Amino acid sequence: MFAEPLGQIRVLDFSTGIAGGYASKLFADAGADVIKVEAGVGDPMRRWSATGSATSHRDSALFRYMHTSQRAVTGTPSDEGIQRLVADADLVIDSYAPGAFDEELSTVRHGSLVRLSLTPFGRGGPYQDRPATEFTVQAECGSGLRRGLATGVPYYAPGRIAEFVAGVFGAVGALAAVRRAQIAGIGEHVDTSWFEAMALTANVHLEIAHHLAGQPEITVPARCLQFELPSIEPTADGWVGFTTHTRSQFNNFLTLIERPDLIGREELADRRVRQREEVELKQIFRRYTQAHTTAEIVDAAAALRIPVAPVNSGRTVLDNAHLRQRGSFVTSAEGDFEFPRLPLILNGSAIVPRGPAPRLGQDDGSVVARIRPPVGAEPAARDRGLPLEGLRILDCTTWWAGPTSTYLLAALGADVVHIESLSHLDGGRTSGTQYAPAGEPWWWEFGSAFLGCNTNKRSLGLNLDTPRGIEVMHRLIRGADGLIENFSPRVFDRFGLGWEAVHELNRQLIMVRMPAFGLDGPWRDYVGFAQTMDQFTGLAWLTSFPEDQPRIQQGPCDPFAGAHAAFGFLMALAQRDHTGEGSSVEVPMVEGALNAAVEQIVEWSCYGKEMQRNGNRSPYAAPQGLYRCQGWEQWLAISCETDEQWRGLRKALGDPEWSRDPILEEFRARQSQEDIIDAHLSDWAEHRQLQECVELLLNHGVPAAAAQDPRTYDRHPQMVARGFHETLTRSVGGTLPMYRPPFTYASVRKWIRTPAPLLGEHNRSILSEAGFDDGEIEDLEVSGVLCSSVQSNGDRL
Questions:
Q1: What is the CATH class of 622-702?
Q2: Buried b (16+ CB within 10 A) or exposed e, 357-379
Q3: For a pLDDT cut of 70, what percent of the chain falls above it?
Q4: What span, in angstroms and rounded, lies between the C-alpha atoms of 108 and 174?
C-alpha cells in the first residue's frame, strides 16, 4: 500500500501563483503536512480561469488542482501566530520580492528551517527587482527566440512553463535540503530563479555547441538551429507528430510513407539538407499523411518504432485510451472536473491527492504545534556538506530527460556512475557533434547535450548485452543506493533487471524508471521523446499563431521529467530513511508533461472551454507580444498583467491619443483590442533602439525585456552576477561554460566539481571500489565487456 513518504515534513506555503503552488503540491500529495498561508482575499489563483470561466462562489479549478491535500490559514509572516508556525516548520515556500519578510523567514533565526524562494530572476544580481512576467522571463533567457519561422515573428512556449519548471526544480533543491536539516540540524535558503530554470529548459546545449564551434559571429536566427522534418503533419482528420532523431527512425519513416526509394539518398540523414529541401519533402510527406487518419498513422508508425503521437488538445487528451487505462486522471473532490495525477508511482501505487484543496482560512485556529523529529547527528558531527554526499547512484540514462535527473542528484553530492557503452551510445553524445574536429575518431566526446547534463558524474563503459556485463552490473547494484534508467521498459526487462530482480539483489536500493508512457497500458513499449510529449499532451496544440499549425515547444518536457524523477528519488530516500527499505519509483514522461499542460485540461474538464493557439498573447497579460526594433533580430518583449502596468506603458509612450480610449482601461477589454494595440506598439518600436525601449519601459514599471539569443547565455549580466555558469576545462573540447542547477544554496559557492566524463574514463576506479581486482578488470577489458575512450593510464586512446 502507498505510505506517505514525506509524512514527517511540515511545510508553510506563503507563495502565490504557479511556481510555489506546484512545489507545495509535490510535497502535499507525497504526504507532507502543507499549510497554505494567505493574506487578505487570498491567492489570486483562487479566482483565476484562463478562459474567464471561474465564478465567485467556488475556488477555481486550477487552484483546486494545485492545492489538493493541504490546509489553509490566514495571516502574514510577521503575525505572532504565523511566527509560531514558522518556528515549527521544516520548510517554508514563498514568492516574495527580495527583501520582503527576510527577517521573519530567516533560516538563521529559525535554526534548521529550510526556505524555498521562487522569484522571476532570483535574489541578487542587477535584475532581481525588475518587473517581470512569464513572457518577459522567457524572452530574457533566450526561450523566446527558440521558436518560429526564419522570416516570421518568434513565439514563446505557452502554459506558464517557466513557472512550472521552477516549481519542480525548486522542490528538488528544497527536499534535499530538508533531508540534510533533519539529519544534521542545518538550515538552508534555496533560492530558485524562473529565469535560470527556463534557461536550462530552453536548451542550453545550444550555448555549449556555440562555444565548441569557437563562438563564431551569429548570422542565423536561433529558431533555425534545431529544424525538424518530419514533425507535426496534417492528417485526414487532424494532426500527427513524429520525431526522427536517428537515421534508423528516419528510414523507418520513409518506409511508413511508402517512399523506400528515398532511403538511398544518404544526404537526407542530414537535417540541414532536409531544411534546404523543406518544401519538396513536405509535399512528399503530406501526400501520405493527409490520405490517412491520425489513428491509422499512429498504429503504423508505432509498429515501426517511430516516435509518434496524435496532436491532442486539452479536450481530446482526456479521451486517450492509454491514459484512461493507466488511471492518469483524478476526479476533483467535488466531482466537477478531472486533472492529471502526479507523475510519481511508488511501489506500484500512484500518488494521488489525500483530500481537497482548502477554503480560504478554513484551518484558522486549528493548526497545533507538533513534536519535531529529533535531529539525527550530534552537534559536533554537523557540517555543511552537500545533502547527498555518501550516496552512490547507478545512472543508466540517455539523451536529456534521464541525465537531467542524475545531473541534479550529482550536483547535490551523490556519487553518480553513468553506465554506457560504445555499441549503444548515450543519445546525448550523438547530439551536437558537428563541431568535433574533422576526422576526429572519438567524435562522441563532443556531444553538446551530453556535456551539459553530465557534469559531476563518473563514467563506466559496460556492455550489458553480454552475460559477464550483467554479472558486473549485479555486483554494482549490491553496493549502490540508487539505479535510474529511462529506456523503453522492454530494455531492462530483457537484461533481467526489473524491480523484483534488483530488489532481490539489494533490499535498500531505490530504482527509478522513466518510461515514456509508463510501465503498463497499450502504449507501454512506444518510444517517446520531448517532442512526442509536446504533441501528445496538448502543449504543442497551444504553441504558435492561430493561423499556423501546432508546433513543438523545443525542450521543456525533458528537464521537466528529469526534475520529477529526481524528486521521486528523494521522496523514496525519505521513506528509506525511516523504514530502511528501498522502493521502486515509476516516473512516466507523459504524465509529467500532462501536469505542465494542466491549465488547458482543467479549463475543458471544468468549464467546457477548449483553449487555442494565440501566438505571443496569453490569458494573463494584455498587451503582450514581441515587437521588432531597429537592427537584425532585435525583438522587444512587452507584457502588461495589471492595469497599473498598462498605465505605465501609456506614460512611457507619451500617453498617445489612441491609448486614452476608455475601453482600454479594463483588462478583458484590452484583450479584445489587442490587434489595434499591437499595431501601434509595432509602429512605435520599429524605428527605435532595443535597449532604449527596454530602459524606458522598465523605468515606468512595465515588464519588458530584450529577447536574448540562447547561444549567449553566459554573457547575460544576471547570469554572470548569480554565477549560473561555472567554467571547466575538459581534456576533450577545452574550456567551456557549464551551468549549475537553477537554484542556489546560501551555503554552497561552487556546484560543478568535474566536467562530463569521457566514456569509460573511470572504469578502473569504479570497479576497484566495487571489489574487482586488477586481474578481473584486465580480463573484462580484453574480452570487450568494458569499453573506454581512454587508456588505463588516463590518456586518450
A1: alpha beta
A2: bbebeeeeeebeeeeeeebeeee
A3: 97
A4: 16
